[in-house]
Amino acid sequence: xxxxxxxxxxxxxxxxxxxxxxxxxxxxxxxxxxxxxxxxxxxxxxxxxxxxxxxxxxxxxxxxxxxxxxxxxxxxxxxxxxxxxxxxxxxxxxxxxxxxxxxxxxxxxxxxxxxxxxxxxxxxxxxxxxxxxxxxxxxxxxxxxxxxxxxxxxxxxxxxxxxxxxxxxxxxxxxxxxxxxxxxxxxxxxxxxxxxxxxxxxxxxxxx
Length: 208
Hints:
The chain has helices at 19-23, 26-41, 48-56, 72-79, 91-97, 138-147, 167-176, and strands at 62-66, 83-88, 104-107, 120-125, 149-160, 179-185, 199-206. 31% of the residues lie in helices and 23% in strands. Helix 4 links the parallel strand 1 and strand 2 (83-88).
């Protein structure tokens, strides 16, 4: 179900300014929502990320959709039988995500994420989440995500490779967060990774 209250566990502490916030105003966030509504109306397949994650995790997994946006990925995972909590910083997108009754939705800064008592079998950060963070907080975010994973839990991420945050930096940050790289692909439909790929889809696992 969606989170009914105004504040999530971490909503009192939203101090970092992310690239998303710097580059988008409220109307641009609403345009983002409309864009995906239009794509859905056109019959465009919007569930490639969820299909891939669903194939990686066990049935009925506890999943955190980190940087959930409108809840597009999380709600599809919920429909596939998983128990999904969703988190985003953008208030417009959080409002849209809360329209999905299948999700528990919090507004929170991933760099300060603290969901007391909650751990997950899997965390997904799709849709360029990592490259829209406040620059320099990527390692901190990965550490906060790792703290919310069970031992042996899986983190699945996807982001474009033509931004400031490189795949090499990402791999170093994974290691620092206690996450072990298991697989990398060039697309969400699992095309083989190559050095000149424009997208990096990564499966990492928490040591344990």
